[in-house]
Amino acid sequence: MQQAEITVLLFTVVAASVLIARKMALPYPIVLVLVGLILSFIPRLPQVKLDPNIVFYFFLPPLLYPAALFTSWRDFRHNLRPIVLLAIGLVLFTMLVVACVAHSLVSSLPWAAAFALGAIVSPPDAVAATSVIRRLPVPHRIATILEGESLLNDATALVALQFAVAALMTGKFSVGQASLRFVWAAAGGIGLGLLVGSGIRWVHRHLDDPPVQITISLLTPFVAYLSAERLHASGVLAVVAAGIYLGWHSPLIVSARYRLQAFAFWEIVVFLLNGFIFTAIGLQLPGILRSLAGQSLFSLIGNALMVSAAVVLVRIAWVFPGAYLPFLLNKKVRLREPAPDWQNVAIIGWSGMRGVVSLAAAFALPYILPNGSPFPGRNYILFLTFSVILVTLVFQGLTLPVVIGRLCVRADDSTDEEERTARLKANQAALELIQKLRDNGDFSPETVDRLRAEYDERVEQLQLCADNPDDCRGEVATPQYQRLQREALDAERQTIIRLRNERVINDDALRRIQRDLDLAEARLTGK
């Protein structure tokens, strides 16, 4: 019963913490970590241990998959160069710098263990980055680059960590073997992910049963991840490849009923897993401190701040050359795209929040070496990893809105414009088809005129928004039209509820009508 009670308590804390975060206009991962940290010091509270196997095999796949599934392949491919520079180049560079800093601070820490620490703290967290950035007014390209980086960098860091641990366990390291292993991890992971995605695509094409399809969707990231890990390829890249592939093909292979239900399903799954994980991060500190009993707390905090500063500064030092050198060295890049504004580059440099993957990787370090001696500096690595997560997530997460405001960066409306253009063209195509069917006599004039009036109204609203985008504020209808239709929908809702209460209709009839009204309201704002 104790485990059940702890789980219920944690989810209760998650719900309350998220409400507090929204009231305070703060990113909820930050509030969850701080609340977990506060709870961890309550006497007699059962200890919650973060099992790395559960994180890697149970939490990570379903968190990465929907992020990849809803990623724009066009935008991802267009920004592939900066994404790869961050996800591979910056991760390896961070690992090198952090290893040097850690080894200089703790001379007893072997180089292999120092490189292990560098690999552990090098990848920004996918959940933390997207949770913080999506609520801030940043250009669409910044969000795309950060989300793309967070999808790929875990693979680089985890493979590098495997090499560092193997070097410590065996005392040997081969650059050639490591390079081949890295190539196989990347190519094998992507290939297996595409293979799994193709198989799931075939299954979806032959099904029209949303509950069964959602179950298959839930299993997809686990199949991709476990298959790749079994073959010593990158499970992270397998999940990402499967998600992006299916996200591109889903509009053609699944029904509207499935899409509506699947989106809501994944939204709940991601929310619950995120909430549980970030709260659990904060709960780990007492156990980590107990493992370091007897050491100077002042020295521990000083070293933790030095390593955290190295993690933050090395990202800033990397992003500016990474952003501008390709334009200086390659004429094709200059002709293809404009150089990014330095303010946007600065925001990317300040958006390096770490999270659960780093902590799980630290916990996954072995306790003993083959010769029976303890893994050198394991407890110290755990403490430094936790400190980096706390500093980057809380300090950078809380100051990022201030940085964006000081840099006078504003969100662009490129996606809103594309949405309005696509909606307008889609409705105009529908009007052309309706007119063609009317001319052919396939439908009665009354039926055609009724539907055409509805499409004419939509086209009129979209054209008004296209002419006055500032008045629509990114929505697909004018505010006046939205207010009027919302009032009409509210009148409909009140009427059907009154009829239900008067026993004129039953609850099944109420829910059927209510679903149509909900869909109409969702379509009104495009959300």
Describe the protein.
- With 527 residues, the chain is mainly α.
- It folds into 3 domains: 2-406, Na+/H+ antiporter like fold (Up-down Bundle); 414-476; 478-527.
- The chain is 80% helix and 0% strand.
- The chain has 23 helices and no strands.
- Helix 3 packs across helix 10, helix 5 runs antiparallel to helix 14 (297-329) and helix 13 (285-291) crosses helix 18 (378-406).
- The radius of gyration is 26 Å and the shape is globular.
- The chain starts with a helix and ends with a helix.
- Low-confidence parts: none
What is the share of helical residues? over 70%
CATH architecture of the largest domain: Up-down Bundle
Question: Would you give the CATH topology of the largest domain?
Answer: Na+/H+ antiporter like fold
How would you summarize what this structure contains?
The chain has 527 residues and is mainly α. It has helices at residues 2-23, 28-39, 52-69, 73-78, 80-105, 111-121, 126-133, 140-170, 175-205, 210-230, 235-253, 256-282, 285-291, 297-329, 331-336, 342-349, 356-363, 378-406, 414-440, 445-467, 469-472, 479-501, 507-525.
Can you lay out the helices and strands and say which pair or pack?
Elements: H1 2-23, H2 28-39, H3 52-69, H4 73-78, H5 80-105, H6 111-121, H7 126-133, H8 140-170, H9 175-205, H10 210-230, H11 235-253, H12 256-282, H13 285-291, H14 297-329, H15 331-336, H16 342-349, H17 356-363, H18 378-406, H19 414-440, H20 445-467, H21 469-472, H22 479-501, H23 507-525
Helix pairs in contact: 1-2, 1-12, 2-12, 2-18, 3-10, 3-11, 3-12, 3-17, 5-6, 5-8, 5-14, 6-8, 6-18, 7-8, 8-9, 8-11, 9-10, 9-11, 10-11, 10-12, 13-18, 14-16, 14-18, 17-18, 19-20, 22-23
